[in-house]
Design a protein that fits this description.
The chain is globular. Mean pLDDT is 69; it is low at 197-276. Among the domains are: 1-37, no CATH class; 108-253, Type II secretion system, protein E, N-terminal domain (GMP Synthetase, Chain A, domain 3), CATH 3.30.300. A four-stranded mixed beta sheet has the order 1-4-3-2. By secondary structure, it is of the alpha/beta class. Helix 3 crosses helix 6 (96-107). It has helices spanning 8-18, 27-33, 39-62, 67-80, 84-90, 96-107, 129-135, 157-167, 178-189, 199-202, 219-224, 248-253; strands at 110-111, 137-143, 146-151, 170-175. The protein is 44% helix and 8% strand.
Length: 276
């Protein structure tokens, strides 16, 4: 009912049908059969609540928010219908960077400062402008048959599958702040992009457990992506010139030449000269 899809009377009628001795139907199936909601509407609501629950638990475990803050945010979410990420940001309980970093640690997604990356114009031939704008996805490097894609929402599995089929390349996903994604889109496609006003919503989408391996970034690419020349965004497997940053605050002051030493892929998530 909090979603505004049914009235108390409709819910009571559906529950009455479900309580019948010969009824074994799930409540959702009854609502669909009575044409109160469509299947797509029901799935959308269930998925939204599943995502919010996962996001809240991740932030609790990481210490980004406390139980009282989560409860307040969930109450506000039910009242406004906003994504949980948006609510947490609006209430001042976290920042976009901290929220994304918590998700990075949970799902082994690398976080990069796209402002420090040189984007090869040839990448536009792999991902067209319309697709990139619709999904807020920026190709940032190609290494052989690997295409590295920076996404505002790095758990859009259908989008990634579609792009893999259309390009014939393996897709590796990284993420950044919403502002960095916007600026990268503008640099690569030479267009003015409307800022994403719902940046919190982009991190409200959490990968299923089986999807996590999809987002492990190639350590070879991570070692040298930001130092690749514009004409050849490739990286040498022998490259060892990068050095690890000592802390997030230190990384924010370093240049793009600062980067991690080779480590097990996906074992950590770091800041790379992130500055606003």
């Amino acid at each position: 009912m909090s979603e505004g899809l049914l009235t108390p009377a409709q819910l009571e009628e559906a529950l009455r049908v479900q309580r019948k001795p010969d009824s074994y139907a799930l409540l959702g199936h009854i609502l669909i059969a009575q044409k109160i909601v469509s299947r797509d509407q029901l799935l959308s609501v269930l998925e939204r609540h599943r995502r919010s629950s996962k996001l809240g638990n991740i932030l609790l475990k990481s210490g980004e928010i406390n139980p009282t803050q989560l409860e307040n945010a969930l109450v506000e979410q039910r009242r406004t219908g906003q994504a949980l990420g948006d609510v947490l940001l609006r209430l001042g309980y976290t920042t976009e960077e901290r929220l994304r970093m918590a998700l990075c640690r949970q799902f082994h997604i690398q976080f990069f400062n796209l402002d420090a990356m040189i984007l090869d114009p040839a990448l536009r031939n792999l991902v067209n402008e319309k697709f990139a704008m619709k999904h807020r996805a920026v190709p940032v490097a190609r290494v052989g048959n690997l295409l590295v894609l920076a996404m505002d929402d790095p758990t859009q599995t259908r989008t990634i599958d579609d792009l893999q089929r259309s390009t014939g390349l393996k897709i590796e996903v990284i993420t950044s702040t919403s502002a960095h994604i916007t600026r990268a889109l503008e640099r690569l496609y030479h267009v003015e992009v409307t800022p994403n006003l719902h940046s919190g919503a982009t991190v409200d989408v959490i990968a299923q457990d089986g999807d996590q391996d999809r987002f492990l970034l190639s350590s070879t690419w991570a070692r040298s992506a930001t130092t690749s020349p514009p004409s050849a965004p490739r990286c040498s497997r022998a490259s060892r010139s990068w050095r690890p940053s000592t802390s997030p605050s230190g990384a924010a002051r370093r240049t793009a030449a600062s980067a991690p030493r080779s480590r097990p892929t996906g074992a950590w998530c770091r800041w790379t000269s992130v500055s606003r």
